[in-house]
TrEMBL record:
This is YciI family protein. The lineage of its organism: Bacteria, Pseudomonadati, Pseudomonadota, Gammaproteobacteria, Lysobacterales. Pfam families: YCII (PF03795). SUPFAM superfamilies: Dimeric alpha+beta barrel (SSF54909). Belongs to the YciI family. It comes from the Bacteria.
Length: 117
């Protein structure tokens, strides 16, 4: 089964990853890819560089970022291969724990719908 882990951050902090975090994350990503557990991962640009497309009552509109009402945003993602939600949660826990006390983040883990499965 595939799961998506959505990393939520407060993008208003201006915080950037330390060299320690980059180094440790590089090792963790390598280990998880080699084990076949991490299928893809990435960070997202700030909402100021993004756009929302909205459908409301049959009318399409677009809204350029930043999105004032959004404090916590999805700052990154990981697509995981796991036997079940418990394993996907444990893999996500490893990503979160590596951030140490430098960051305040939250991850949402959800199974990806796959037709016929």
């Amino acid at each position: 089964m595939r799961f998506m882990s959505l990393i939520r951050v407060d993008e208003n902090t201006g915080q950037v990853p330390s060299q320690r975090l980059i180094d440790e994350m590089t090792v963790l990503i390598g280990e998880m890819r080699a084990a076949g557990k991490l299928l893809d991962t990435g960070g997202l640009q700030p909402t100021a560089k993004g756009r929302r497309v909205k459908l409301h009552d049959g009318k399409l509109s677009k809204i350029d970022g930043p999105f004032a009402e959004a404090k916590e945003v999805v700052g990154g993602y990981a697509i995981l291969e796991a036997a079940d939600l418990d394993e996907a949660t444990e893999l996500t826990r490893r990503f979160v724990a590596i951030h140490g006390d430098e960051w305040n983040i939250e991850c949402e883990v959800r199974q990806i719908e796959e037709p016929g499965i």
